[in-house]
Amino acid sequence: MTSLAFVLGVLPLVLAGGAGAGARRSMGTGVFGGMIAATFIATLFIPLFFVILSRTKARAAPSSTVAEEGLA
């Protein structure tokens, strides 16, 4: 939600007109694109890394419940 607010706040820089618009547009476009890219990368890769680490941890840890059930 904060990313969306940030992107919408930068939107006037992207659509700038008048004196100095070239500098504002270039800065706004870079910030706008960077924030959009960072948001999508975080949305995709953070859950992916969590799943990978969870599976790695599950494989590395010995199953104590199976060992306890076998002894009982």
Describe the structure.
By secondary structure, the chain is an all-alpha fold. It contains three helices and no strands. It has helices at residues 2-14, 21-60, 64-71. It is rod-shaped. The model has no long low-confidence stretch (mean pLDDT 85).
Itemize the secondary structure elements and their pairings:
Elements: H1 2-14, H2 21-60, H3 64-71
Q: Which key features would you list for this structure?
A:
72 residues, mainly alpha
What's this model, at a glance?
The protein is an all-alpha fold. It has helices spanning about 1-15, 20-60, 65-70.
Query: How would a textbook summarize the main sheet?
Result: none
Overall mean confidence score, pLDDT: 85
Structural class: mainly alpha
Shape: rod-shaped
* Helix amount: over 70%
N/C terminus separation: 52 Å
> Given the structure, what is the number of helices?
3
Strand content: under 5%
